[in-house]
Structures are given as C-alpha cells and as structure tokens.
C-alpha cells in the first residue's frame, strides 16, 4: 500500500485491490459455495443467525484493511478512516432506505445500538417500557437494569407465544398497547421494543404494523432489527419506527463487530451521547450542532474500524453471488422445505407450517419427552449444544412453551441434505439426553418454570463439558454425573 | 526493530502513544484464532474464546498485581471502561464528579454529560499547569480535596445526607505525556473519603512493576493496545472485590445481569464475558503481546531502552529547537517513554486548532514523521513517544522538520502579536468606557 502523499483522502476502492474472484461467474447456491467460506472441513453450519460467517474474500479484504491501519496509525485515525467510513454509511443508508447518510451511525453490535438508545432516554418515575418475553436477552436485561436503577419505571411485558398467526399477534399487541395507554400515569412516556425478527424462535414479525400500532397510540417504537439487514428488504423511511438497529455481521457478511443504528431526524433530540461519551460531545443547548450525535459516533474511543469498513466488500460479495433477491429467494425456500424435512425425520412438527413468520430461519420441535420439557432445564440446553458440536454440526436449540425446539438458518452454502443430516443427528442426540437424564444428578437450580424465570438469575455451574483447553471439540455429557464446571457453559443455553 | 512492525518504511512513528502499534509477530500469532473463529463460529464463540479469554484474564491479573483474577475483565478501550464505572454510580443531587484540566478529552466530556443530566451532580475540575512538580501536585491535590470536602459538608447540612465525591485521576496524562504521582493521589483520596477512579490508559507496558493490590485504587482502567502491543481494541477494567457491587451492569447489559435484590453472588466477571458479538481476538492478543515482549527481553529491558531514548532524544530535540523539556527543572520526574518539548513559537502565538492541522500537513503528510502537538499553559508543545524502534536520530530529523514547519506556520498564521495588541486595545477601550 502506498503511503499518503497529500491530505487527499482515499476511498476504499483505492485502498482495496479488486478481487480476481469477481472476474469469474459465481456457482449455484448450495454446497458449491462452501469453498468460499472458511469452515473446518466437515463442519455443517446451520446457524448463520447467531454469529454470521465471513466469506474468504471479505476476510482477505479485512487483512488489507488492517495492514492499511497499521502502516501509519496517525494518518489513519486522524484523517484516513473518515471518508471510507462515511462511504460505508452512505452505502448502508441507501441499502436500508434511510433518508440521509447522517441517519446511519455504526455501532459494534445490536446490543450496543439498543443499549445506547435505551440509556439516552431520560427516564422518570411513571415511565413504562414495553418488552416481550421473546426480547433478546441483552435488551431484556437492559430494560431490567433501567427499571432497577430508576425508581418508578415500570416494565410491561407482552407475551408472544408460538405457534400463532400474524393476525393474532397484531390483535394481541393492539390490546396490550391499549391497556398500557389506559393505565399509564399522566405525562409518562411509554417506550416499546419491537423485534423485526425474533431470535428465539427465529420468527419474522409483522413489525411495521406493530410499529404503527405504537405510533398511533403515541408511544416510542424502538426496533431491534438484529437479523433484518441482508435477510429482508428494508425501507426505513417508511417504517414509522423511532429507532432501528441491525447487525451487519449476521446476514450481511460483514466482519464481526459491525452493526448500524438508524436515528431518523425526529429522534435526534433523544440522543445526547454515545457510550462511551465522545470527545466531541457538546452539552445540550444553543451551541450544540444539530448533527453533534453523528460526529460523536464517528469516533468515541479507539477501536478497530475494520469491521465497519468491511461492509463495503460484503456488498461486493453479495452482488457477485447473485444479489439480494436471489439470496433471499434461495434461503427462504430452503428454510421452508428444510423445515419439512426436519419435521419428517424427527417425527415432530414445524412451528410455522404456513410460513407466515419464516424467512431464512425455521423452527422445528425436538423429540424430547414431554416429562423432560415440563420445566426449563439448563442442563438440557447445554447438553444439546455440546452434543451437536461433538457431532461437528450446529443449529440453535431453545425452550419455548414447554417444548424444546431447534432454530435452523438456511444459507447459500446449505442444501436440503443438510437438514436430513441435522434431523438424524438430533434424533440420536435427543434420545441420548433422555436416557442420560434419567440417571444424571441435575442441580436443582438448573431448572425453572420458564426460560424467562431462569434468565432472572442465571447461576454459576451447570452441566459438564470436557474441553481440550478450548481448542478441540467438547466431549459429550457423561451419563451418570453432572458436574458444575463454570458459568460459561450457560451461555450455550442463553444466546440464540 | 522496525522489521517487527508493519509501518510504511518511509514513516517515522513518533506517536505510538495515541493509537499503539501491532507488531507483526503478534499479528501472526493471532491468525490461528481468527481461523478458529471462522472454522466453527459456534464452538469458538460459545466455548473456545470464553476459555481462552479466561486464561488471558488470569495472566493479565498477575501482570498488573491484582489480588484476584476475578477483579480484572476486558473492555474494548479505556473510555469504555471509565464510562462503565462512572455510569454505574448512582448519582444524587450534591454529588461531585471531579476531573482535571488535563483529563483525556472524552473523560472530561463524560463528566460533563453526567453533570448535564438529572440529578446534575457538580462537575468540578482540578488544575494542573506545567511546569510543576510531583510535590506541588500532591500538595495542591490534598488542598483541593479538602476544599471539596467543605463544599460537601455544606451540601450535607442542606440535604440531610452525605453526598459522594468521585475523582478521576490519570496515572499518566495524555497531553502532556506525563507520569503523575497517582498512587499518592489515591492515598489522599482515601484520607479524604473520595472515590478514586484511575484512568491508567497509558500505564500497562510503560509503567513497570504495576501492583494494583498495593496501590489499591477504587477503580483502574488501562489500554493494552497502547504500550503493551495488543491488537486494537483491548483494555482492562480492574475493580477490587470490595467495589464490585458498584458495577451493577456492563455496557451493553449482559444476559448475566441480575437485579440487585436478587443478586446474592458477585457476578462481575460473568457480566463482562458476553456483551454482544464482537471480534474477541484482540482480547486474546494481549497474551500473545506479552509473549512477544518477553522475547524482546521483558518489561524492564523494553522500558529501560524507551525511557533512555525518550530522555536523550528529548534533550537533543530541545537543543535543536532551542527550547526546553517540560520537566527538565524537576529532574524529568514526569517522563517515562513520552517526552514533551516546547515548540519554538513566539510567546504570543495563538492556540488555534488550525495550527495543529498545519503541523499535520507539514509533518505527517509532507515529511512522514509525526509526534502529537498540543497547547498547554500558554505554549505549544510536542509530545514524542519513544519505542523499541526509536532512535535519537529520529528526534534530530524531527527537530529540523519542526524548525522548518514553525517558520512556515508563523508566516501563514502570524505570530499572534497583532491579535494580542488588538485584545489589549480592546481592554483599554472597555476600561475607558466603564469610567465614563
């Protein structure tokens, strides 16, 4: 890379070499695409939804970006990164239908975006925050934290229970909002969190209609769109939402540590500060520029800008593989058909047979005996995770309404046979778990009435997994004893 | 030594202190972890990275002399760590948050923000003006905290309860790059019943023999991606067990958060293990960085070299510029690996930010050499970082470059004497007007 010869700044097209791969034509979707990703040979990845997957070409671009950063850090951090970052924000603004580039700022992940919005509201006694039982754990707990630290703030929880229909969800949501409004103290503000696509189960919601119900009732609507960008088309300027956050490292192929927060002009007054507060923060008042919050998000502490800048190459990759419409079409069809295959193999059922809630993720019941599903049991969650990984494949498993489920992500490297393999693996895993559970010494506080009541107080120690200093695959849970090995094993049961 | 780093060969890096630098061997050492992250993202993020980071945390805890590994967690950068602490205090009317005029800008703005929102704790500022001495700072600090205590006593009478005072102290100031007598200042905080939040951003890898259990600050934060050679971004947050109840939540809040009334165990570490998907490899790189530094010869060897170059280079630079090192009158007691030398401008020179921009054009772009520049107590200074790739010759080259740049800048901006004259005339007119 050449060093800067003037204060003339560079665009990413000048910094990054064009990849020769883009001269070739892309293969058909399916296993032919595996060679463009870096999965260990034989690993069957049916969980794009949690952590995404970085295509090799984007990995290469990231290596170049990091090298550029290290060549001359003063140039990069004072001058160099700014136009490329604005360029990425412009691309995203266009892609998601924002009105203006200054409505889009970058954050590390959706949890951060949701957290910074929620913490910027000046909460008072009487205010109400509406969440769902299915709200993602970090957001769920942010709301809990605000409630715990601001006397008088109430939480109102809407129960989203699957299986259901879009019509029933909207009816229930309307009723819930009406009820909250009716009983709200005068002068209080009400803020609702709406998931565009719920994590567990993986369900695409009628979120625009839910936002409209909020706005018609005069309440704030913050949309957790973590799974949206790259999985569904977006036109945020017509969404009516007050804020929208989405992770680019899930379905948009950016490097991990990359999400965006949409702040329409109408919502700017709420956003006083980034977290951490930026050096460019100006106190509210006549001296504060209108776009101060945008400047704050540009730099608020030293970070690695590579994940944000990787969005540029992620867009190039997606164009090359066939473009958004083609990707969505393939993944959505595969999710539906794959769900049917899974249900057949496991002799259970798909959560959403009509496909009202299904984009690229599908949820299917697991063949676990009813008596083991009566209450939430974290040891089962961990055992499922461990055993799947031990068999060199992965899909998310979760507990909802006294049933255990799997949530499967359909991606362009998957095909129908993957679902067959997963199904067979889950059949054997579930029967192992049922058999082992009989004789296992499960700690009592591994269990709770529901996943949410367990989430109130996730505890230290759960189910054993042997690990080879973390560099190998965990061994399956042993049959007769369950040994607490440390809190982190719980993460398997909580993160979707 | 430059072989171990991936700088543009034409660029002389004299500002390691701002953003750090990633050694090529460390960049190599972490490649396998990136490969693991993509080989099986679920295994890596649910198990492997958690275990690895747990091990690295223990290693870092030993390195900084924490009493327990459970007192040390990773955060993305020092600003993030400091914001976590300051936001987790429950602020009440009458409370005082105290920073310094020399606090890092984003920490000053954090204190400003906290004071801007209800219940508007008071934003106090302690003043440090160079040249000064450790002795004077300690004296002034004690007197300042005593005066804050008088204010507090008054508020206590009015409010019927005793407010708290939270002081943010730099271990090593950023601009100027200056080691403070922070341990003594922490002791004084204890004597005066003031919380000590130490911004140790520059400490790890520059300040040898850290022993936090001994120094015993209430909170302490440092950036591993500055002087320790870790990958950006990677920092440590240290909270001794006695204070972990203050940290109610990480940012973002973790799934492991437990409401205070339900919390019967300390879950400090658990709350920081997962706060949303990030690139976790920088945290792992801190351990690889320690390996590299051990290979270089270890902390004492590295810092002895850097410190020597800072002093020799600084003296040479001051000689060429015809100016002085900021603490040469105090036997260089503020200088570790960063040295601050006065810029040869006329004393009337403006403090305009545009002058910093001019130095960027003339040095960073044109000459491919760049230390930090700043205006402090009526003067422009340059802060040079001495690193393992630095040599005294770099300071000589810099000196010539600065001399040339200064001449040009004075031509372009004027020497400020005109503005000063106008200001004086303005004052005289005002006085005359008042008399009338």
From TrEMBL, chain A:
Residues 87-364 form the Aminotransferase class V domain. Keywords: Pyridoxal phosphate, Transferase. The keyword Transferase applies. It comes from Lentinula aciculospora. PANTHER family: HERCYNYLCYSTEINE SULFOXIDE LYASE, L-CYSTEINE DESULFHYDRASE. The lineage of its organism: Eukaryota, Fungi, Dikarya, Basidiomycota, Agaricomycotina. This is Pyridoxal phosphate-dependent transferase. GO terms for molecular function: transferase activity.
From TrEMBL, chain B:
It holds the Pfam family Aminotran_5. It comes from the Eukaryota. The keyword Transferase applies. Residues 22-327 form the Aminotransferase class V domain. PANTHER family: HERCYNYLCYSTEINE SULFOXIDE LYASE, L-CYSTEINE DESULFHYDRASE. This is Pyridoxal phosphate-dependent transferase. It comes from Lentinula aciculospora. Keywords: Pyridoxal phosphate, Transferase. GO terms for molecular function: transferase activity.
């Amino acid at each position: 890379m050449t060093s800067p010869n003037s204060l003339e700044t560079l665009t990413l097209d000048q910094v990054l070499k064009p990849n020769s791969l883009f001269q070739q034509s892309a293969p058909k979707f399916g296993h032919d695409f595996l060679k463009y990703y870096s999965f260990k040979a034989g690993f069957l990845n049916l969980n794009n939804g949690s952590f995404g997957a970085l295509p090799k070409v984007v990995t290469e671009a990231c290596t170049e970006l990091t090298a550029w950063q290290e060549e001359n850090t003063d140039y990069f951090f004072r001058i160099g990164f700014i136009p490329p970052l604005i360029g990425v924000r412009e691309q995203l603004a266009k892609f998601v239908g924002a009105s203006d580039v200054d409505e889009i700022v970058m954050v590390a992940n959706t949890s951060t975006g949701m957290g910074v919005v929620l913490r910027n509201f000046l909460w008072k006694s009487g205010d109400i925050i509406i969440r769902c039982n299915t709200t993602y754990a970090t957001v769920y707990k942010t709301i809990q934290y605000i409630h715990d630290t601001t006397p008088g703030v109430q939480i109102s929880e809407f129960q989203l229970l699957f299986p259901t229909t879009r019509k029933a969800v909207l009816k229930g949501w309307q009723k819930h909002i009406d009820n909250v409004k009716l009983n709200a103290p005068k002068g209080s503000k009400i803020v609702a969190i709406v998931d565009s696509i719920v994590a567990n189960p993986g369900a695409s919601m009628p979120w625009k209609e839910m936002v409209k119900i909020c706005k018609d009732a005069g309440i704030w609507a913050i949309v957790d769109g973590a799974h949206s960008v790259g999985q569904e088309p977006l036109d945020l300027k017509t969404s009516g939402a007050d804020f929208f956050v989405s992770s680019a490292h899930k379905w948009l192929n950016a490097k991990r540590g990359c999400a965006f927060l949409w702040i329409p002009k109408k919502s700017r007054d709420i956003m006083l500060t980034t977290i951490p507060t930026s050096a460019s923060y100006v106190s509210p008042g006549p001296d504060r520029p209108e776009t101060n919050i945008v400047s704050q998000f540009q730099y608020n502490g030293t970070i690695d800008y590579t994940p944000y800048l990787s969005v540029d190459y992620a867009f190039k990759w997606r164009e090359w593989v066939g473009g958004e419409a083609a990707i969505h079409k393939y993944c959505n069809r595969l999710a539906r058909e794959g769900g049917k295959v899974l249900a057949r193999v496991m002799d259970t059922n798909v959560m959403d047979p009509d496909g009202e809630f299904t984009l690229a993720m599908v949820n299917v019941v697991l063949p676990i005996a009813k008596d083991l599903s009566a209450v939430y049991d974290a040891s089962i969650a961990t055992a499922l995770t461990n055993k799947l990984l031990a068999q060199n494949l992965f899909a998310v498993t979760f507990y909802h309404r006294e049933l255990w489920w799997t949530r499967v992500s359909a991606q362009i490297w998957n095909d129908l046979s993957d679902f067959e393999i997963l199904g067979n693996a889950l059949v054997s895993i579930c029967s192992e778990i049922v058999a082992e559970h009989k004789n296992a010494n499960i700690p009592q506080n591994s269990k709770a009435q529901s996943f949410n009541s367990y989430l109130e107080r996730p505890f230290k120690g759960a189910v054993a997994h042997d690990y080879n200093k973390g560099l190998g695959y965990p061994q399956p849970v042993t049959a007769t004893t369950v040994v607490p090995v440390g809190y982190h094993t719980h993460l398997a049961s909580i993160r979707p | 030594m430059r072989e171990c780093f991936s700088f543009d060969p034409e660029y002389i890096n004299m500002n390691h202190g701002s953003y750090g630098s990633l050694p090529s061997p460390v960049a190599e050492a972490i490649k396998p972890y990136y490969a693991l992250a993509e080989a099986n993202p679920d295994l890596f993020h649910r198990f492997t990275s958690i275990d690895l980071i747990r091990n690295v945390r223990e290693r870092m805890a030993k390195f900084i002399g924490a009493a327990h590994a459970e007192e040390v967690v990773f955060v993305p950068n020092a600003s993030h760590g400091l914001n976590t602490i300051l936001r987790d205090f429950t602020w009440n009317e009458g409370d005082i948050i105290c920073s310094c005029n020399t606090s890092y800008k984003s920490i000053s703005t954090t204190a400003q923000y906290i004071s801007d929102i209800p219940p508007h704790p008071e934003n106090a500022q302690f003043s440090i003006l160079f040249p000064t001495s450790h002795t004077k700072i300690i004296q002034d600090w004690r007197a300042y905290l005593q005066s804050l205590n008088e204010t507090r006593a008054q508020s206590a009478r009015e409010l019927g309860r005793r407010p708290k005072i939270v002081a943010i102290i730099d271990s090593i100031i950023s601009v100027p790059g200056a080691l403070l007598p922070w341990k003594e200042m922490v002791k004084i905080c204890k004597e005066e019943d003031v919380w000590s939040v130490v911004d140790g951003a520059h400490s790890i890898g520059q300040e040898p023999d850290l022993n936090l259990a001994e120094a015993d600050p209430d909170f302490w934060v440092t950036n591993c991606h500055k002087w320790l050679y870790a990958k950006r971004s990677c920092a440590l947050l240290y909270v001794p067990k006695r204070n972990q109840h203050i940290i109610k939540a990480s940012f973002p809040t973790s799934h492991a958060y437990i409401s205070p009334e339900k919390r019967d165990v300390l879950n400090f570490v658990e709350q920081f293990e997962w706060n949303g998907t990030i690139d976790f490899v920088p945290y792992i790189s801190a351990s690889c960085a320690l390996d590299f530094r051990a290979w270089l010869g270890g902390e004492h060897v590295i810092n002895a070299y850097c410190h020597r170059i800072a002093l020799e280079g600084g003296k040479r630079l001051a000689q060429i510029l015809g100016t002085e090192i900021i603490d040469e009158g105090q036997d260089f007691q503020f200088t570790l690996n960063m040295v601050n030398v006065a810029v040869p401008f006329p004393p009337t020179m403006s403090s305009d930010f545009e002058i910093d921009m001019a130095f960027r054009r003339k040095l960073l772009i044109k000459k491919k050499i760049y230390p930090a520049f700043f205006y402090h107590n009526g003067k422009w200074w340059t802060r040079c970082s001495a690193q393992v790739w630095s040599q005294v010759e770099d300071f000589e080259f810099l000196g010539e470059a600065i001399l040339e740049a200064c001449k040009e800048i004075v031509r372009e901006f004027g020497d400020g004497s005109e503005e000063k004259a106008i200001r004086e005339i303005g004052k005289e007119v005002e006085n005359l007007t008042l008399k009338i």
